[in-house]
Structure of RsmB/NOP family class I SAM-dependent RNA methyltransferase:
Amino acid sequence: MTPAARLSAAIDLIAAIDAQRIPAAKALKEWGTAHRYAGSGDRAAIAGLVWDVLRRRASSAFVMDADTPRARVLGMLKLERGLDTEAVAALCDGGRFAPEPLTDAERAALTTRTLEGAPPHVAGDYPEWLDDQLAALFGDQRVAEAAAMASRAPLDLRVNTLKGKRDKVAASLKHLGATETPWSPLGLRIELGADARNPGIQAEQDFIKGAVEVQDEGSQLAALLSGAKPGEQVIDLCAGAGGKTLALAAMMQGKGRLIATDSDKRQLAPIHERLSRAGVHNAEVRAPKGDADPLADIKGSADLVLVDAPCTGTGTWRRNPDAKWRMRPGALEIRLKDQAEVLARAARLVKPGGRIAYVTCSVLPAENVEQVRAFVAAHPDFTPTPPAELAAALWDKADAFLAATWPTPEGLLLTPRRTRTDGFFISVLKRKA
Ligand SMILES: C[S@@+](CC[C@H](N)C(=O)[O-])C[C@H]1O[C@@H](n2cnc3c(N)ncnc32)[C@H](O)[C@@H]1O
């Protein structure tokens, strides 16, 4: 397919997503099935265009002074891809399979309009109803923070110290452009291009033999700051597919007891294969069966309970720009209730002197600082660890890391703009001995 034909396909896909109100991933899959002649390069390029439009949905429409699928695609080419008017016109030449030629109004918008005068939620590309919360947290910086949350994310990897060393894995993944991440001592980063092509990490020997896992650096840091140690009893209460379970296991060096559970046994499905590939032998996966509590035998004995809480996922918008436009206020209310419940459950599992690591991949204060404040008010035997003490886990990088984050007495907030990670909130709550 020509670049112009790919652009036409992206416009059609954006129209279909609008009209059918379906997730972008589903629309892309259906398009692929209906257009089997399109090669993998075409599909990746078209997916890249669609994801970029979703990143810049509001600002692209604003800059074109029109909110149609075509306007959003053209506006994205200007704002996200940096194309000038002539370059856009060259793609829209009206040829076979190409978009219609630019109108005078489109030409004028592409040439003269900017984001000046756009309201913050438009310039920052986020739903208007979240503006109060983002303003309360970031103030005047919310547009810059949100713009970083809308940018493309790299592919981050965590080296599994049960199977490999970072320098060795970095050397063997050099052909993919892997470099060290800024903070995590175990992180490697591969920058991705505009098309949505995965560099094929799953086919690498290091991945197959379990020396490396896909994990955003923010998620790696959340596990690291929990301070899991060899010999401890550690419970991963919201283990899901096990991303943090694997990181905790490596920190425990195979010593101690690691229990992974989740309220939804389907979420746990991939964990077994991942634990086995990573060479973890001290983890027990407890899937829920009916109404029975899979942790009924544990009361006040855990050194560490990790609550990787169900959340709105605002911190991962850069990996899933579709999600932010699909998010509704009701979803936040449900998450807040779930978070309070999981925290209360964690409190019953922790031993005196033990700790809860509360983690969300959201930047919203209601899910983070406010949730911790409410928990501590109801559980006065728990105290949040001061930010500097948390950051100390990063040794020589501790000061720079602390300065990069958004610290509060309740915990540390990481954001794409500040730490170049997904957005994460990390609080470690110590129980009185
Ligand atoms: C952020 S995801 C976990 C991601 C996972 N820890 C990882 O690092 O790959 C949150 C998980 O919490 C689970 N969950 C939701 N409500 C829960 C509850 N009340 N108790 C335990 N788990 C819950 C969800 O099923 C989901 O798998």
Observations:
- The pocket of S-adenosylmethionine is lined by residues 219, 237-244, 262-264, 267, 308, 310, 338, 341-342 (CB under 6 Å).
- The chain has a mean pLDDT of 97.
- The chain has four domains: 3-118, 120-150, 155-214, 217-431.
- The longest strand covers residues 350-360.
